[in-house]
Q: What sequence folds into this?
């Protein structure tokens, strides 16, 4: 007997779709992806074809939705926090020297990350944890 599938999500990045597909497979949910090969070989068609589509069995749709939501919520909780005020309002600092030198010598100005973040709330600077 064939299992009836229901559309679950669309991802414009095939790599992101593979990550979600792997998460579902690791938790015992059989999912299928559509248009992965086409969009991997021709990335300019990602928007035109509507991205990579993931389908799951109708009986496991609610479980799938809860699993992906829970995983995304866990990832949001592990974001960097300010050591001073504990907010997640950090921005990556970039060096202003490289773009100025690049502009002066006629090169393309790309700002280099300094390896530090600055809190927008309290202004304290802290190193980026890898």
A:
């Amino acid at each position: 007997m064939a299992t009836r599938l229901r559309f679950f999500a669309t991802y414009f990045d095939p790599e992101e779709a593979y990550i979600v597909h792997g998460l579902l497979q690791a938790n015992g949910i059989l999912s299928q992806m559509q248009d992965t090969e086409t969009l991997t070989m021709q990335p300019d068609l990602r928007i035109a074809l509507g991205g990579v589509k993931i389908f799951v069995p109708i009986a496991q749709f609610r479980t799938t939705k809860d699993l992906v939501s829970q995983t995304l919520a866990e990832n949001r909780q592990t974001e960097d926090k300010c050591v001073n005020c504990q907010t997640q309002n950090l921005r990556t600092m970039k060096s202003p020297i490289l773009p100025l030198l690049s502009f002066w010598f006629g090169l393309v100005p790309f700002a280099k990350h300094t390896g530090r973040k600055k809190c927008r709330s309290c202004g304290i600077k802290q190193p980026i944890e890898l």
